[in-house]
Amino acid sequence: MTITPAEHAAMGRALELAARGPARGPNPRVGCVLLAPDGRVLGEGHHRGAGTPHAEVDALAGVRAAHGEGAARGATAVVTLEPCNHRGRTGPCAGALLDAGVARVVHAQHDPNPAAAGGAARLRAAGVDVVGGPMADDARTLNATWTRAVELGRPVVTWKLATSLDGRSAAADGTSRWISGRAARHDVHRLRAGVDAVLVGTGTALADDPDLRVRHVPVEGAQPARVVVGVRDLPPSSRLAQAARSGEPVHHLRTRDPRAALDALWALEHRHVLLEGGPTLAAAFWRAGLVDEVVAYVAPVLLGAGTLAVTDLGIGTIADAVRLDVSDVAVLPADTGDPADPTDTTTVRLTMRPRKES
Amino acid sequence: MTITPAEHAAMGRALELAARGPARGPNPRVGCVLLAPDGRVLGEGHHRGAGTPHAEVDALAGVRAAHGEGAARGATAVVTLEPCNHRGRTGPCAGALLDAGVARVVHAQHDPNPAAAGGAARLRAAGVDVVGGPMADDARTLNATWTRAVELGRPVVTWKLATSLDGRSAAADGTSRWISGRAARHDVHRLRAGVDAVLVGTGTALADDPDLRVRHVPVEGAQPARVVVGVRDLPPSSRLAQAARSGEPVHHLRTRDPRAALDALWALEHRHVLLEGGPTLAAAFWRAGLVDEVVAYVAPVLLGAGTLAVTDLGIGTIADAVRLDVSDVAVLPADTGDPADPTDTTTVRLTMRPRKES
Which of A164, B44, B252, B336 could form a disulfide with A301 if both were Cys (CB 3.0 to 4.6 A apart)? Predict the structure, then answer.
């Protein structure tokens, strides 16, 4: 099926509008433009995050406010994602479009969410002309992580791994500050700022008493949730226990099962989580096939002994090694330029995805 | 002191000529241009490798052949390196320039070799006008490794390190083919082709029966020498023992002392050696402070267990870790594009130098 030049232009605009929405959280970023039968733009809208109107409803409300009730009758809705057919915090968009008398819907990405899908079918059954697919790749890219999470039915897991060049995370005596350079340590905050939750095991929580908040970089919306996975208690004096008592979003998931942890995080509406360690928790996720992306900070330091950054992945022979496909390599430069400063070195960041064997 | 525009142009030409010489071997690459007193070019020459005339002698011979005896009288010699004052396989260049009646010498790099230095002083003592230093950085860059070796009084050591992302060189059962991608394995041959000798310990020689020759890439001149360091015997059936019997340049240095091995290699006129392993030999060089450069091939593979690529560097705490300054990061791409081919992955190459603490 074809779309008109006006609809194509409107889809480009809808994608721009969609990009204004929040990049993380339970909902995708969606934009909508309403066109009159002659191709004039009647109004536009976008989704601003969970609990606020969906893009179609936002656009319809704008048209109604500007042009009065019934102004969208016979209109075409151009929307970046197939209108939903489920009632969450807000009503289904398919119903809202039908109520408004929209005659045609052009959408880009098909809804990957089994719970929400069926919007196009419902609209068609009610006699609306529905075209799906134009610019779907752009729309999918805009919500790449959300789409993946919805398809997987669990949060997307990014594993952050920091290692010396020879695979160590600490020296023989346990000291580890600092293996990575300063730019790499700051870069981790950028990673945190892009996810819904940051995960560590109880081992790391007990050993390092981490804070896990985003610092150094701006955060869009709230701080990501901080999550400890494992059955051991944290002392009440620990930073995370104190933060929980202060009402900050800190969760202790008392399980050793990565799938159970992800199910709980999914129920908390987390779609992208950052696994920061330690090695035991990371290995459990890896062995369960629950790592979707690896971001490794390789510091140009040799230790020759000490704690290994990665242990016990259940791999006995090279043929069983899981290869990673490298999508990005970045050199994070030293920022002081002072060669005598041992806390500041260039670090190499590799972004990778486990290769799915064919 | 200043030089004339004609001399400046001649030095640029001399550097071009120098670059035609062999990049490895015991001697530096040197070029020479002889100018008449009015700035005209009388002749030019360059050094073509050990046992052939030095650049000054090559240029003087050309001038003599073209213009007859005495044609260089009163001339200016523009040369990329301070004329030598020692008799090696060929006579000292300072003497040759004096014999030819050269009145002025402009040289770039000062001779870093204590055994050869003194050429400028000898020329000055004989009344020649000598200017040293113009474009010295360019000349030094052209012979960077040779200069470093001469200053150190031993071969420059490049350590080649291949590791999985988590610091392993083999899986739990000892299998290691292939951790690095194909492009990385070929790149190692490029490294070999740039050195005078390739070194392994007896452990690696016995375990892997390596060939150590350059393959896949062209070699300028002879294959680099192949050197085994350690006291254990190699079986007569090993590839290296067979090559030695065939008269190929294979040496077994029966010592465990890296400094003694380098002294022997220096006496064999090797100026740049590639340390390929194994971990015991590499650690001995590292602990002795005898590693000048590290080229690490980091493969995007996780093993979680197995042989560690680097062991026992004598580092107990993070403050004692030796940082490396990264001079280059290269992504060596997979070359088949077949995601099902486990022997072909992208590999990241880091070129580094141990940071000298101030």
Answer: A164
